[in-house]
Amino acid sequence: MSLPVGRRGHLFAAVGVFVMGCPYAAAQVRPASEPSAPGSIPEPQLDPQSPLAPLPGLGVDWPDLATAPVEPAAVADPATIAGETRYTYRVDGIDDVGGSLLRERFDQLSSLNANHGQPANGAQLDRRAREDATLLTSLLKADGYYDARIATRVEPNGSHPIVILDAEPGTLYRFSGVTLAGVDAAGEKQALLRDAFAVRKGDPVNSDSIVAGQTALTTTITDKGFPFAVVGDPAIVVDRAAKSATLDLAVVPGAERRFGHVVMTSGEKIFDARHVQDIARFVPGHPYDASALVDLRRALIQTGLVSTVRVAPVDGKDPGTVDIAVGIDRAPPRTIAGEIGYGAGEGARAEVSWTHRNLFPPEGGLTLRGVLGTQEQLASVIFRRNNFNGRDRILTASLTASNLTRNAYQARTFGLAASLERQTNIFFQKKWTWSLGGELLASDERDVIVTTGAPRRRTYFIGALPTTLSYDGSDDLLNPSRGFRLSGRFSPELSLEGNVFGYSRVQLDASTYRMVTKGTVLAGRVRLGTIFGAPRDAVAPSRRFYAGGGASVRGYGYQDIGPRDPNNDPIGGRSLAEFSLEARVKTFGNFGVVPFFDGGNIYTGVLPDFSGMRYGAGIGVRYYTNFGPIRIDVGTPVNPVKGDPRVAVYVSLGQAF
């Protein structure tokens, strides 16, 4: 009798039952002198030392030991390890297979590694070595080495024994055939889908490649217009004799669809379907793309008004379309925030605000804000509508009353402002941003006459149309390490103080970032500004340029750089020039140090002439969090003038620029 090789496991049990059930195996051995019972059939007298009689017709197809699973050998003589002792271990034979990832995975899961440095006895080493041998066999099999053998042993190594795992990976199995059944139904896009799977005939039978290919295929097929596509699980058949395998993967693309409409399903009516469509990046009629749904889910969460979001494709009302079903649950819409701080030149201040982010749906928020400080008092009402007729467009209107005291001036201002902007944020950092706005101000301001130092008071009525345009080519909003940024601000303004006159404010900013070594980034910035169309003394003190402080030239007081009046107070100017250089060095953990060197000055002319530059230098500390670095900078003036501080300290969130 002969059984198929593929059923050898069942063969051993069958043979065992047969032998146990045969009369020879079941016979009782009796002494030769014991008589048989009368009338009974004489029992054969057996010699226990004699061989079994031949069994005609019975053949056993023994397993091929070269292909049978190998049990890891035990640690050699663990009884020789007296008591508990610390040990070391190593793995031989895998340096040329699997790459560094195999070693990393083994170290992460290894019992020997997890308990390394702890005392162990012989039995514990035996168990851990067996576990790790089984683990390594599985890891090698996942990399395509189906015939791997692992042996373990212990060798003396001074006072600490060393446990050795000897690996023989064997032959690397490769695919002799890869089939994507059903992909032809994708029509002209089938070639794109085959390329996405990326596993080919002749490739190693590597589980990581298979999973990556399956994931890429699933993502690609849903991103290319097939919302209801089904990608099955890969079926792998290993041929040990040929040292190869075949892979079959079933794909059911379904019908290709185009975007239909947004439909609201279960959940609270925070937004209507029209507003969700404004937020979405897809347009009805465009080919379906699953990545647009992921983007929409993130954008809805980012509004702050939604706690959970459900976004899914459903059959569209129109033929050939797929509607997007959106269900949302409300998040708390109100926020109360407070802030207490102190700044050199800005004094102590406390700020509190109350916000209802959806008082005027959809996303029409109202904020009441108040500031009470030694040099600033403010009250404002702000209306803000997010995602206004488009993604990340912000419509803002504000009414503000403030009293601001600075070394250069005191201004009591009542203002009305509105703006429309395209905003960037840490979730969706954008290359291009812009803003268009308008301001109406009535400001009662006090300063001094430059020639005499005598105090004076003037009232200004100002209308302005500020416009900004920015390009962000950096890799991170709060902590860039490469790239550059450019921004410009242009604000034509009309002023009434005695008579009506006009002028324009222009400011240009540029910064660049370069990683020179791992953990070290060199950063630099330049700022230039000008006011043209009116003399400095005609422009309201609160609208002039100033320099000095944590976001300007560090080491100096806030707005303290530039021309001064007879009382040694700054008076501002019509033009500005600044630069900053710093090295951002990661030290240990989440901490870093930042040596910096800044320079700048304010000029009375329409253009800066770069004379009389004031320089500041110092060092900062950064603590890097998942939302950006916390900054502490300590600077000192390099060439101070009378009245400048010896040391200035600045604290903020994010890098200086």
Protein topology:
Blueprint: H1 8-21, H2 23-26, E1 88-92, H3 99-109, H4 111-114, H5 122-142, E2 149-155, E3 162-168, E4 174-181, H6 190-197, H7 207-223, E5 230-231, E6 235-239, E7 244-252, E8 258-267, H8 273-279, H9 290-302, E9 306-315, E10 321-330, E11 334-343, E12 347-360, E13 364-373, E14 376-385, E15 393-405, E16 410-422, E17 432-448, E18 455-464, E19 467-472, E20 483-497, E21 499-517, E22 520-532, E23 575-586, E24 591-603, E25 614-625, E26 628-637, E27 648-653
Parallel strand pairs: 1-3, 4-7, 8-10
Antiparallel strand pairs: 2-3, 5-7, 6-7, 9-10, 11-12, 12-13, 13-14, 14-15, 15-16, 16-17, 17-18, 17-19, 18-20, 19-20, 20-21, 21-22, 22-23, 23-24, 24-25, 25-26, 26-27
Helix pairs in contact: 3-5, 6-7
Explain what the structure shows:
The chain has 657 residues and is α+β, with helices and mostly antiparallel strands. It has five domains: 1-31 and 45-54, no CATH class; 78-168, Ubiquitin-like (UB roll) (Roll), CATH 3.10.20; 174-252, Ubiquitin-like (UB roll) (Roll); 258-330, membrane protein fhac (Ubiquitin-like (UB roll), Roll); 406-653, Beta Barrel (Porin). Helices cover 15% and strands 42% of the residues. It has helices at 8-21, 23-26, 99-109, 111-114, 122-142, 190-197, 207-223, 273-279, 290-302; strands spanning 88-92, 149-155, 162-168, 174-181, 230-231, 235-239, 244-252, 258-267, 306-315, 321-330, 334-343, 347-360, 364-373, 376-385, 393-405, 410-422, 432-448, 455-464, 467-472, 483-497, 499-517, 520-532, 575-586, 591-603, 614-625, 628-637, 648-653. The strands form four sheets. It has a 17-stranded antiparallel beta sheet that branches. The longest helix has 21 residues, at 122-142. The chain is globular and about 100 Å long. It starts with 7 loop residues before the first helix and ends with a strand. Residues 1-76 have low confidence and may be disordered.
